[in-house]
Specification:
This protein is an all-alpha fold. About 90% of the residues lie in helices and about 0% in strands. It has one helix and no strands.
């Protein structure tokens, strides 16, 4: 069985195609990296918005605590006044 002689032009063409494929892969990696950087920037913006929402929740919680203390104090003072008025009579 005769073995075909290897022709150098096919090796050159294969090498050229692999170089093109390597170039395409490099371009895809670059595009992917840039895309992830854009997504990371958007997540940073979302994180900043959540920080503002957290600050608003903290303010609401402070207000609720203040009103709870004021209401509880008023009830205690009212109860003391009623008990005091009952003991005088």
């Amino acid at each position: 069985m005769a073995v075909m002689e290897r022709e150098p032009w096919t090796d050159v063409r294969i090498d050229e195609r692999f170089e093109r494929i390597d170039s395409d892969i490099r371009d895809l990696r670059k595009e992917t990296k840039e895309g992830f950087q854009r997504v990371d920037k958007r997540f940073d913006q979302i994180d900043k918005r959540f920080e503002r929402v957290d600050d608003k929740f903290d303010a609401v919680q402070r207000n609720m605590t203040t009103w709870f203390i004021a209401l509880t104090s008023s009830i205690v003072v009212l109860a003391a006044a009623v008990i005091g008025a009952g003991s005088i009579a």
